[in-house]
Amino acid sequence: MFDRTEEPSVQCPPRHVALIMDGNGRWARERELERIDGHSAGEEAIVAAVRAARDSGISWLSLFAFSTENWRRPQDEVDFLMLFNQRVIRNNASDWNEMGVRMRYLGKADPRIPDFVHEDIAFAEHLTRHNTAMTLTMAFDHGGRRDVVRAARSLIEHGVPAEQVTEDALAGHMQYPDLPDIDLLVRSSGEHRLSNFMLWQAAYAELVFLDVLWPDFRAEHLQQALDVYQLRQRRFGKVPSAVAVGTRG
Ligand code: IPE
Ligand code: IPE
Ligand code: MG
């Protein structure tokens, strides 16, 4: 995971794009609707984002669908979000399967997740498991800190001696060890924070914050973020060669 000998060049599309889908509540409030109407309207944005990402040649797309902190919301909204995430699977798993998308759910550890949601998640993961065009990771009941704690616990359970606990070893005990570092992390709705999202994988992500509220997010917004990404110079702690010879910077 931290072997950066194959760093994605800024000339290439990012390999792993992650989206923090935020602003559903504000979108609804602007229209004098209920918050849950904002979540419902977000489905069209999810569909658009998945298609646009696949068409852009992105091989890993991750979406933040429900955080470990979102359990603190009113029970009605939590209940709705459980149903909504099931609905997204029911409405889209077949299309995404045809598009060659492999679906995986990251997190999903809380006993409050209803069985019917687990069943549909298992169905979608099984249906799409051999697809190779793009991996869609739905961060659902996900928390970046909890992911790291679970990996640490797994290392201990496997009896890994302290001197063998390296970054690679810990990464190997994450839920999905093959999930690459995030290249481009986009958050909608104008908020400038990570909200405990994929902290391990976001270590060197390029951050792009867009003002668009999630239900209005479409292919053009992904493209806007990709354009910004193309202009970023990723250094990973090194000195850029052009600056080193004094020609730029
Ligand atoms: C994001 O929209 C959806 C989830 C967090 C599940 P919000 O519901 O957070 O919308 P705002 O931030 O209140 O506008
Ligand atoms: C983060 O958004 C979680 C998801 C997008 C699923 P929140 O709206 O819950 O985050 P905060 O509360 O603004 O940090
Ligand atoms: Mg929010």
UniProtKB/TrEMBL annotation:
The keyword tRNA-binding does not apply. Binds 2 magnesium ions per subunit. The active site is at D22, N70 (proton acceptor). Substrate binds at residues 23-27, 35, 39, 67-69, 71, 73, 187, 193-195. Mg(2+) binds at D22, E206. It is an enzyme of class 2 (transferase). The keyword NADP does not apply. Homodimer. Belongs to the UPP synthase family. Catalyzes the condensation of isopentenyl diphosphate (IPP) with allylic pyrophosphates generating different type of terpenoids. This is Isoprenyl transferase.
